[in-house]
Design goal:
- It is a single chain.
- With 294 residues, the protein is of the alpha/beta class.
- It has 3 domains: 1-66, no CATH class; 70-124, no CATH class; 127-276, NAD(P)-binding Rossmann-like Domain (Rossmann fold, 3-Layer(aba) Sandwich), CATH 3.40.50.720.
- Helix content is 31%, strand content 20%.
- It has 8 helices and 13 strands.
- The strands form 4 sheets. The protein has a 6-stranded parallel β-sheet with strand order 10-9-8-11-12-13, sandwiched between helices. A 3-stranded antiparallel β-sheet has the order 6-5-7. A two-stranded antiparallel ribbon has the order 1-2.
- A hairpin with a 5-residue loop joins strand 1 and strand 2.
- The radius of gyration is 24 Å and the shape is elongated.
- The two termini are 22 Å apart.
């Protein structure tokens, strides 16, 4: 969570139950100029310390640090995001007396006895490529941007793939199916969906996309339609391996009973997120292991 000296806030730590005290603590840190760690312990059944009875049964160690106007690590992070490469950060939050607490680039922190460091890898935004600029793609793009993803929309129709129709998109590209994939050149971490609603557009797109080791590939439409496209590609001499079939999500999305474009978009993005996180999308009440990795 970032707090400005004027009181503006970006992001959050909790669902709103800790923020008021955090803001007060941050003001004290700004006055002193020294980073500090505060602890919120909600393990007690009678957790009434803050007068709200959180009952979360957990412990939060929170580092509050004052940032200079342009931290070196933030400048490197910005450049790495532009290049689409990960950034390794190291947050020193415990150490011997006199230890400087705070955030640095991982390479600038040397292991020392008694030093406790939180390591974090900041990945570039998930790249989503939407082939098809129909009306049903608009909520998909909008929701994906809410997730912080980088979204490009591709369509052969100049009147459809426009910034006016997709103001949230990072880019709109007009290209015929035969050249679209080469032009966009989605990398291995890309999430891709084909939703042109045109059989003769979907087939060449899938032909070009199936051999690529994408993080996710989905095709909108009924199962029979997908099977027909795959069958026609095979008849034309294109070899479809079992791995390609396994990686293709068709029909795309989770079974949420979706009907409207917004509901369908939610179904599709939910499946994409589950695949990226390597989860099976089952209800959390059925999960026997902790929700978050320890």
């Amino acid at each position: 969570m970032l707090l400005s000296s004027e009181g503006r806030r970006t992001g959050s730590i909790s669902g709103g139950c800790l923020e008021d005290d955090i803001i007060a603590q941050a003001r004290r840190t700004q006055d002193s100029g020294r980073a500090k760690v505060i602890t919120y312990d909600t393990t007690s059944e009678n957790d009434l310390v803050w007068g709200v009875g959180l009952g979360c049964h957990g412990v939060v160690h929170l580092l509050i640090e004052e940032l200079p106007p342009r931290p070196v690590w933030a400048e490197v992070l910005r450049e790495n995001l532009r290049k689409r490469v990960p950034t390794e950060l190291a947050v020193v939050w415990q150490g011997p007396e006199g230890t400087r607490l705070g955030t640095s680039l991982a390479g600038n922190v040397r292991p020392e006895p008694g030093l406790t460091v939180f390591s974090q890898t900041v990945l570039p935004p998930t790249p989503l490529v939407v082939f098809g600029a129909g009306d049903d793609a608009r909520p998909l793009v909008r929701f994906a941007k809410e997730l912080g993803w980088q979204v490009n929309v591709v369509d052969a129709r100049p009147a459809f793939a426009t910034p006016a129709r997709f103001p949230e998109a990072d880019g709109t590209v007009v290209a015929r199916p035969e050249e679209a994939v080469v032009r966009i050149n989605p990398e291995a971490d890309s999430v891709v969906i084909v939703m042109t609603h045109h059989y003769h557009h979907d087939a060449p797109l899938l032909r070009a996309l199936l051999p690529r080791p994408l993080a996710y590939l989905g095709l909108l439409g009924p199962r029979k339609r997908a099977e027909r496209i795959l069958s026609d590609l095979a008849t034309d001499g294109f070899t479809i391996t079992p791995d390609m079939r396994e990686r293709l999500h068709a029909p795309v999305g989770l079974d949420l009973g979706a009907d409207t474009p917004e509901e369908v978009a939610l179904s599709i993005l939910a499946e994409m997120q589950a695949v990226l996180a390597r989860r099976d999308a089952r209800p959390l009440r059925e999960r026997q292991r902790p929700i978050h990795a320890e």
